[in-house]
Request: fold
Amino acid sequence: MARKLMRGNDALAEAAILAGCKAFFGYPITPQNEIPAYMADQLPLRGGVYLQAESEVSAINMVYGAAGAGARVMTSSSSPGISLKQEGISYIAAAELPCVIVNVMRCGPGLGGIHPSQGDYFQAVKGGGHGDYKLIVLAPGSVQEMADLTILAFDLADKWRNPVMILADGILGQMMEPVVFEEDLKINQVEKPWATTGAIGRKPNIINTLDIVPESLEQKNIALLTKYDEIRKQEVRWQEIHTEDADLILVAYGTSARVARSAMEEARKKGLKVGLFRPISLYPFPEGEISRLASSKTEFLTIEMSSGQMVEDVRLAVNGKCPVHFTNRLGGMVPTVEDILEKIEEIYEGSDH
Amino acid sequence: MSEIIVAGFGGQGVLLLGQLIAYGGMLEDKEVTWFPAYGPEQRGGTCNCSVVVSKEEIGSPVVSKPTSVIAMNTPSIERFENDIVPHGLLVYNSSLSEIKSDRSDLRIIAVPANEIADKLGSSRVANMVLLGAFIEATGIVESTSIEASLKIVISERNHHLIPLNMQALKEGRAYQ
Reply:
């Protein structure tokens, strides 16, 4: 199949359409603008609806409506815009509606800057909005994965009746790389008997998140937690390189993982046994897999474009079995291979390996 | 692995030049990335992109230590010449810029790109002249791959301009 050179944002948008996305609602913000632009251009020609909302709050509530009506629906934004959507995301999670939300992260806090960052990890994987809920969170590491994980996201959203977030960053959104789209992609259309499609010949379906009876709401909360437990059993995704013999394992996702991989290769050339563990699903986090790799013979180095967020989940997974180090760049800066190599060498100098 | 920065004023075809290298590499079955320096850009402001061409999987698409720089104006030379790896390549547009580099280790190719482009009838193909000098010096992609890339990148209604672009590419190759 022919490779196409595409921008990450464009590849993601094309993948969404191929996956049967029939509705897109958004509001402009850098560095994700190519997604709504692509959707505005293509979706109406290919049987879908594109609408630029008057705000992010409005966009996410349009997603709520379209998801409730059973459509495959997506919205995309970048960090500050995703913050604005949080109330709606909490409602969609509570109503157990499938949708795909894309965050092409930029640096913060506040309005911050427009350059790449991974500062929204906590917001994405720990809830983000109010109340007890989880998103399924997928972290692409290439333009190919921007496409592939978007297709997967629609399937997972329908399978679990849960919002799925694609957590990318400004580099993955803006860069061009070859991408291959599967010809004759099969769309896993599932029945949605719960959808509000006009109650002709059946009882009305009601989508509502208000439940003021504690005994009843508690049962709903428990049902959600049971679903999340099942997701944690079934939907963990990750990639490991050279972890078999590694005495230092780098842990990174997205753009950081690309740089970490190069740093690992450079370290291997110097005879250092460095491996890479790349979480692809950030929720569910591959905690069991990291725990399996942690032993008295290993150490970990987490690399992030944040002040240290995923590293907390790595430490929880390692649970004190070995040291977990951390290095980062902030403010829209991207770590270089040299930055990471320097930290790797510093760790080797200080350890018994 | 070739790590390239292409830089110049907005409007000089800097991003397109970079994309053509990436497309050309992809058509030759190499791994490629292209990444634009995006930010609060303005018309006439400076503009650059990073291109990586490799036989292996590519890590960071952001180039901090380029093996080659293609500079279309003076500010681009000033900004990037000291980042080039030892014995790297600097191809620059001598029509619009002069070089005061104290990097004696670099291979430096001066190309009067705008003069050549004007002679061909359009200053807009100055980027192609520089690309010609660059592919000749590095052998990174074949000119046939650039021609194939042009057919993809340029919209069909402008395909009549491809011969002009290819002529500019050819003229550029003479400068080494």
